[in-house]
Amino acid sequence: GLAVRASAGTSFRAPSFTELWYTSPATVGNPDLAPEEGATVEVGLEGRGWSVTAFGRRADPIIDYILGDDGVYRATNVGTVTTTGLEAEIHLPARGMLRWQRLGVTWLESDIDVDPARSTYALAHPTLEAAWTGALRHRAWRGSWAVRFRDPQDRSSWVVADVGVGRRILEEIW
């Protein structure tokens, strides 16, 4: 069968202790920061073993560290971030020792109301994220993996792989 889903919500992020109070020669907090507030909407389709979701989010005022003319980054409420995206996931067949595996990809477009040359976070917003995850089991042994790719707006892409292996030692556990 096919399922259609939709949701909408609001969010709130209070400034962190560091954003409010931290001080170093290169970074200064700001006790007057306002919290970030956001609104999100999404619509998706789900089928047998797959899903596709379109979403949008608007947050204002965002908290960022902005580089001043004196070379010091200061925590500041800087404006609005509007993000739209599309996410797709498929569940791949599992046979034998393979318990499950999934492939997922997310495309994002963020419009950030800040000068990227002075911002700590503006160019860190990803444009593409992808992941392949799964798990194995053979007798007393279990394994899992996650390979993730991220491509931020500044194009400093990275891949990280996590692998886990475990063995049952007592029958009552697991």
Q: For the terminal residues, how far apart are their CA atoms?
A: 33 Å
The side-by-side strand order for the widest beta sheet comes to: 1-3-4-7-8-9-10-11
Number of helices: 1
| Average residue-wise pLDDT | 93
Q: Largest beta sheet, briefly?
A: 8 strands, antiparallel
Order of helices and strands: EHEEEEEEEEEE
Gyration radius, to the nearest Å?
A: 21 Å
Which class best fits the helix and strand makeup?
Answer: mainly beta
Q: Helical percent range? A: under 10%
Task: Describe what you observe in this structure.
The chain has one helix spanning 17-21, and strands spanning 3-13, 27-28, 36-47, 50-60, 63-67, 73-77, 81-92, 98-112, 126-138, 141-152, 158-167. It is globular, with a radius of gyration of 21 Å. It contains 1 helix and 11 strands. Strands 1-3-4-7-8-9-10-11 form an 8-stranded antiparallel sheet, with no helix packed on it. Strand 7 and strand 8 form a beta hairpin. The mean pLDDT is 93. The protein has 174 residues and is mostly beta strands.
Short description:
The chain has 174 residues and is mainly beta. Helices cover 3% and strands 62% of the residues.
